[in-house]
Protein: CCT-eta
Amino acid sequence: IDEIGKCDVVNVEEIGSTKCIIFKQEQEGSRVATIVVRGSTTNVQEDVERCVDDAVHNYRGMSRDPRFVAGAGASEIEVARFVDKMGEKAPGLDQYAIRKFAEALQIIPRVLAQNSGQDPGVVRFARGSFLYGERLKTTPNGSCVVLSNT
Structure:
């Protein structure tokens, strides 16, 4: 019994027109979750199932491996910020080359934004927010919102 686990409530609920057996565990220490996937066709349902599976495995990978880095150009923006600061401190003509390299790094997130159908201006906004130490949140429509200063 210990290997299978236990639950607090077992009942039958109707979801749409399908009867489902629901197992609920009220304890917060549970490491098990169930996601009900529904779709209009089998293909849609399988696509959603693959998406959920990918998301779960990505989260598991990110939480277990400290070598994961942020995607969508966030790393490039942060490196560009660091290189730009180095360029400010560099003497003579070297600062121009260093700052142009920092500017070139920002092309990657801009292209990623364009390819995903977003406004490339989001990159300028994100870079400015990184410079001031602000954390960003992406809204469902793809725009960025400043959460807070850190």
